[in-house]
Write a structure and sequence with these properties.
Elements lengths: L2 H9 L2 E3 L3 E4 L3 H11 L5 E4 L15 E3 L10 H4 L3 E3 L4 E6 L4 E6 L4 E4 L1 H14 L3 E3 L2 E8 L5 E8 L2 E6 L2 E4 L27 E10 L9 E6 L5 E7 L4 E9 L4 H14 L7 E11 L8 E2 L2 E3 L15 H21 L4 H29 L4 H10 L2 H10 L6 H10 L4 H21 L9 H19 L6
Parallel strand pairs: 1-12, 2-3, 2-13, 3-9, 6-15, 13-20
Antiparallel strand pairs: 4-8, 5-8, 6-7, 10-11, 11-12, 14-17, 14-18, 15-16, 16-17, 19-20
Helix pairs in contact: 2-4, 2-6, 6-7, 7-11, 11-12
Length: about 475
Amino acid sequence: MSTQEQSAATTASETRSPDVVVVGAGTAGCYAAATVAREGYDVVILERKSEEEAGHIACGDALKGADAFPEAIPKSKLEPAFTNTGVDHGRFEIPQEDTVLEIPVPGELAVIDRWEYGRRIIDGAEDTGVEFKYDTVVKTVTQADDGRVTGVEAIRKGDPISYEADIVIDAAGSLSVLQDHVDFSESTFDTNVNYSHFCSAYREIVHVEEPVEWHDALVFKPTERAAGYLWYFPRTDTEINAGLGFQMTEEPMHLVDDLKRDLENRPEFEGAKVEDKLGAALPTRRPYDSAVHPGYMAVGDAAGHVNPTTGGGIAGAAYGGKYAADQAIEALETGDYSEATFWKYNERVMDHFGARYAALDVYNILSTAVDVDDLMGLLAAMPGDKLAEALYSGSTDIGLKLKLEALLKSRGHWGTIWNLYQTKRCADDLLAHYEQYPTSPAGLSGWQDRRDQLMEQVYETTGAEPKY
């Protein structure tokens, strides 16, 4: 064999042809893959991390709604990763007002060991027949002449490998690199995505000597700058997930210093030991208007399936994965891999949580335009149950009695109260519009035009710079 022939043999790409390729072994990817594999189809998950590191990501470790997760991976499979099921409320510390606000959290809530949880969803997907390929980095996406996605090109431990598939499911996380390589010009897939729509998160696992008093609460605290917040989530009464989230437009190290300083000043953390420092990015934006393209769907963080006010994304990722998988199964059964076949996935996301998340994003927009001290003063005046309702439903009923109570308790913040009230009306209008999400790709453009008009009202009311 000549030198040229040896070189060609060395660089030749191995080719695999499963029914579905899923990129990313997180919650969305595992639930999507497991749902399809249970129907007997050949599904491969490509994961860039090693088998030992897979499932290890930066996360607040709080899990809401696990009592009703999709059935593809049984809850019993996940329960050993639940380390604290006694958490039932949020504790919002407002140092500007020298107060602590207790906020009830509806539904089942737990704090988990996220790495153990990650291993268990991988095990659950493997139980259904999903094949995992670790140490595999996707480099590009392949498309046919008509634009349909037909697979991916990857590198595994230095060797090129090609995957030809009927469907590619993008579960590659925030700012997914796959989306940089797909030509979406002939589809509805949402390309109105910018790094400023995302935040960075950093967390440490902190071991303390004595049990913390707030072992039954998720603790939140604003940073010294308006751009972020700190959290303390008790995995157990002596093991705390301590972290912060901040917009990507901010300088990360300055805000990490805020966390370090707060840890040093809290007596319960005296003598604490810190381990497992880790960072990540997550969306703090509305869900993608459309996450489908012929032969391709995006799920989880890759489609903006995160509550933009709390950063909670595990439940949304699980259900997003299931809904995408259901349409993948329909496509495999019919041989039709068009947007029209996948569209029901968009509809189910918007109906389940997407509309609420879009309305909640309005309050994120408001927070960029108001003085942080005024905002904290207003929050201190509001009943905790109303804040909880707003945080998880996207709206709340601000009746006359609440308005009067807030006015009496918030002298000096009345302008902010009026601004919040007007913003709430905008959020309600937006929520109602999202509940009329179109039933086919043909209706998306007109729906977006009206949504954008409503967003103009949001910017005018809040005084915020346009986000999208």
